[in-house]
Amino acid sequence: MTDIVVFVETSVSGELRPSAAELLTAAARLGSPVAVVVTTAPLDASTAADLGALGAATVFNAVSRLLTTSLTGVQTAALAKAVEQFSPAAVILSNTLDGRDIAGRLSARLGAAVLLDAVDLRLDAGTIVATHSVFGGAYLTESSVDSGLAVVTVRQASIEGSAPAAAGQLTSVEIESQPLTSGVIDSIDDIVVASNRPELRGAKTVVSGGRGLGSAEKFVLVEQLADALGGAVGASRAAVDAGYIPQSHQVGQTGITVSPQLYFALGISGAIQHRAGMQTAKTIVAINKDEDAPIFEIADFGVVGDVFSVVPQLIDALNSRKP
Amino acid sequence: MKIVVLIKQVPDTYGERVLSPDTGWVDRAASDRVIDEINERALEVALTYKDSAKNTEIVLVTMGPAEAKDALRKGLSMGADSAVHILDDSLEGSDALATATTLAASLKREGFDLIVTGNESTDGRGGVVPAMVAELLGVPSLSFVSSVVITDDRVSGVRSDDTQTLQVHAPLPALISITEGSPDARFPSFKGIMTAKRKPLSVLSFAELGAEHPSARSRVVSNTERPARAAGRTITDDGSAGSQLVDYLVAERLI
Ligand SMILES: Cc1cc2nc3c(=O)[nH]c(=O)nc-3n(C[C@H](O)[C@H](O)[C@H](O)COP(=O)(O)OP(=O)(O)OC[C@H]3O[C@@H](n4cnc5c(N)ncnc54)[C@H](O)[C@@H]3O)c2cc1C
Question: What is the DSSP letter of A198?
Fold first, then answer.
């Protein structure tokens, strides 16, 4: 069976990012997964076993002290080595900042074509076919590469299912030299998420707030509803620009694309660029005091009203249902 | 200092955007075309530096059909000094690697100390072309950065997502791709608009770049339009909207 190289992202302290599972799941549909992990110290046997359980037949561990100072340089070098050693049909990465940076570098270095932001991957008569959700889900397209290696990035939280467990056979290489063409990392801060809310990407319920919330203090209402529903918190760009919430919560054209079972838009007008990030949600609920707000054109249930009176009513009604 | 800013003309995100049913490529004729907002922010990064370092030269480079020169004129009216338009029918439908190959060839020809790009276009959203261009040119790159600081011999910035915040830098020559976290761009002044018409805008064919198209390429093999969403029920709050909403969520088995 052909090998499929998977780039596994880790935190600074070496823990596997959750995307490892879905990348290995996608890879196992296409061939035999080789997990490439880059670390500052040799990977311990238990992490290799974890990757095996997630479907990695082989774990290729590149060890380099330079990992924490070279911006994606070591990872690109490690993948180039893995491609040389395994001659895979594809290299699969997560569509994150690092994943895209490394995919671009690797593609240009090896002269390989890219398939970007895939929401699904399958094998069709021996050809790898990627599905993409374009213009906020207005189109679904499929693409493939004409010949040779495919460098593929996969949208986070888009692949379902799991891969059968495999051997997780560990091999290691060292990467010594500083890649000349990489930027330099001066400092790294891992963001520790203090809340136990679900991640925005992949959440079943998302509650987003817009400029209509009026201030960072009052934006708390969005979080309260999210917590009452066990959902994640999102926002419009206007709410991010106004400083109500960090950019990593922005939903839309230039933010995150979500596709939850239930999406709440609170005080959001429904600009086309916002819709581009949420219009594939199964059910959309909008609360807005302007009955002409465009968000109502796509809402399954719309409430014309003030968020500061409707949302507290809603939270009360939800709480009184709970035993 | 010579700063090159890469520009892309895209379908206006405020309007409907269409993929051509035959090719799966963006149907450029179906929408209004504008300079991508992120490119205006990229240009703003260069202009802000030029405000404090007057002997900075800012060159715009775009690859695109004939109308793309409007995007260059806009950039010139904002304050760039000159522009290069790579215009060639053979480039239609270029994928990311082909685009990067063409841009890198023109950048080699043009020369630069710093290249500034947007992190991703609003039509393609790939976000890989900057890294490809840097790799083809053999220079370091800082991708997806904001809070950019440029000095004589280096560039630095902050690169953050939901997992990490990195402080990064690179010696020049280098490439950076900036995010929406970078400030909004200035508006062209009246004087800017008038002088833009006289600023040099050169047009180059692919052959003049002396590059070759890469042999590997990706291709759109199918393309389906999803049905548009329809509006559902809308109620006006009379004090009972909260409980009506809960009834709806229960009926739909959403809670
Ligand atoms: C290139 C580009 C990319 C963009 N990307 C994104 C993106 O990724 N995400 C995004 O969201 N936007 C994006 N935008 C911006 C987009 O065009 C809108 O400006 C933005 O979505 C508006 O956010 P909003 O709905 O919160 O604010 P507004 O449009 O100001 O709407 C606020 C709404 O709140 C309502 N309201 C006010 N007070 C109350 C109240 N007390 N109770 C109930 N309702 C109330 C108002 O009626 C109004 O409808 C992008 C724009 C461009 C040009």
Answer: P
